Amino acid sequence: MAVRASRKGTGPTRCPSCSAPTLTQWVGDTAAVRVTADLAPLTPTQQTELRTPNRLIWCLLNGEHRPPRLRWIHAWHPADCPHPHVTDHQCPPAEPTTLF
Questions:
Q1: Cα(19)–Cα(59) distance, rounded to whole angstroms?
Q2: pTM higher than 0.85
């Protein structure tokens, strides 16, 4: 009998391209979205600057006795949420190199 893979993903890893610490998980229950998020917490000002229609902000639930978990930030998400907020990972632009 085959074992079904966990939908919550694994713990933090490093991006294979830029080596930044990231967390990749399925977020949601019915129509889940696969998210790779940076682990650096954002200030409210940074959240406003980085949020775009194609780059979302996530609430990172951490617990002493459970693995980190990403959660949607909805309109009813508390403004004084005690958890760090993180954004979708985007590798920084690569530096140009020459072939000669």
A1: 22
A2: no
